[in-house]
Design a protein that fits this description.
single chain, 348 residues, alpha/beta, TIM Barrel, six-stranded parallel beta sheet, three-stranded parallel beta sheet, 43% helix, binds S-adenosyl-L-homocysteine, binds iron/sulfur cluster
Length: 348
């Protein structure tokens, strides 16, 4: 049987089959199939998340990332608790039902500070996603108890030796431990990878997809690796848009119920990147709601879009794009259907 047909029927493929899809000469049928699965299982609604990038200070040194601690060219910033809460209020006023708090790994925000921020944001009746990197079980537990709903921690790659080469000083086992802890604590868990990392093969991406399916994740953020000139990987020239889109489409075929964002990094490489992603399996967009000077300072990779826009312009722009694509804006909090399914299985 044709691999795409098999995936449409069973939502299950082996590693060899996935690799074949990632290497297709013409990926158009793959994208079309992912769009069919997206429509059938998660519908036409696109869920918006307001992204607050509250600190670009990071103690880690990931070779790919513009925020790595050895990058001395970055002007560093931290927002205060009150500034973060204000941005969340603004996000609510723009109509967002979820906010995502993202930062480098910055220990300045200890458990007490995070608890304060989380409680204040939850009092606004918003769903709250955290993306703060690796923490202890106890810290994750405290955030969860304070009210955090979701956590986003990409595995980046499941190739342990590649992971440890790219993330010096970090261990693959600890990354896995974090994801396991987050699941155990009842978070809606997002993970994901960068596609096109130096030294990453299609075979390896196939393993990544199977890893996410087996965990299972409730959300998968897949973006292209984009070389940042002020990092040790700055010379990598490959354009990874296609491989990221393919990875995302296969992920949708195999995980029909999860949330999949059309990542901002896709649009950094293709001016219609997010639209193409929405038409190839994605059902979430995460517009930036960070304001002021700091909006230009959170640069993980070059070519980041909309750093000169205001959040209100972004809100209008994305709404127009979604409607032009024949889709609608999600009216609720956009909880992952995979999470709802997981929880109902637990109570059976
Ligand atoms: N510090 C946290 C969250 C911020 S980084 C963490 O690492 O989890 C968020 C994501 O940005 C990372 O997971 C990584 O996948 C992505 N990223 C970093 N550098 C990138 C690059 N050069 N190209 C594309 N994505 C990148
Ligand atoms: Fe820090 Fe995250 Fe960038 Fe790694 S990817 S350097 S942890 S901000």
């Amino acid at each position: 049987m044709d691999i795409i047909e098999k995936a449409l029927k069973d939502h299950s493929l082996n590693k060899t089959e996935i690799t074949e899809l990632l290497r297709l000469k013409d990926a158009a049928p793959l994208y079309a199939a992912a769009d069919v699965v997206r429509k059938k299982y998660v519908g036409d609604e696109v869920h918006l998340r307001g992204l607050i990038e509250f600190s670009n200070i990071c103690k880690q040194n990931c070779l790919y990332c513009g925020l790595r601690r050895d990058n001395k060219k970055v002007k560093r910033y931290r927002l205060s608790a009150e500034e973060i809460i204000k941005l969340a209020e603004n996000a609510k006023n723009y109509g967002y039902k979820t906010v995502v708090l993202q930062s480098g790994e910055d220990s300045f925000y200890d458990a007490d500070k995070m608890t304060y921020i989380i409680k204040k944001i939850k009092a606004l009746d918003l769903a709250l996603t955290l993306s703060l990197g690796e923490k202890t079980f106890e810290e994750y537990r405290i955030y969860r108890e304070a009210g955090a709903d979701r956590y986003l921690l990409r595995i980046e790659t499941t190739d342990k030796s590649l992971y440890e080469r790219l993330d010096p000083g970090m261990s693959f086992e600890n990354r896995l431990r974090c994801l396991k802890d987050l699941k155990e604590l009842g978070y809606e868990v997002g993970s994901g990878i960068m596609a096109g990392l130096p030294g990453q093969s299609e075979d390896s991406i196939a393993e990544d997809i199977l890893f996410m399916k087996n965990l299972p994740v409730h959300m998968a953020g897949i973006g292209p690796f984009i070389a940042h000139p002020d990092t040790p990987l700055g010379e990598e020239k490959k354009n990874n848009f296609e491989i990221a889109l393919r990875t995302m489409a296969v992920t949708r075929l195999l995980m029909p119920l999860i949330n999949i964002p059309a990542t901002t990094a896709m649009e950094a490489l293709d001016k219609d990147g997010r639209l193409k992603a929405l038409q190839s399996g994605a059902n979430v967009v995460m517009p930036n709601v960070t304001e002021g000077e700091v909006r230009k300072l959170y640069i993980l990779y070059p070519g980041k879009i909309c750093t000169g826009e205001t959040p209100s312009v972004c809100r209008g722009c994305i709404e127009n794009k979604i409607k032009a694509a024949g889709r609608s804006i999600g009216l609720g909090k956009g909880v992952s259907k995979a999470y709802v399914y997981d929880k109902s299985e637990e109570t059976l």
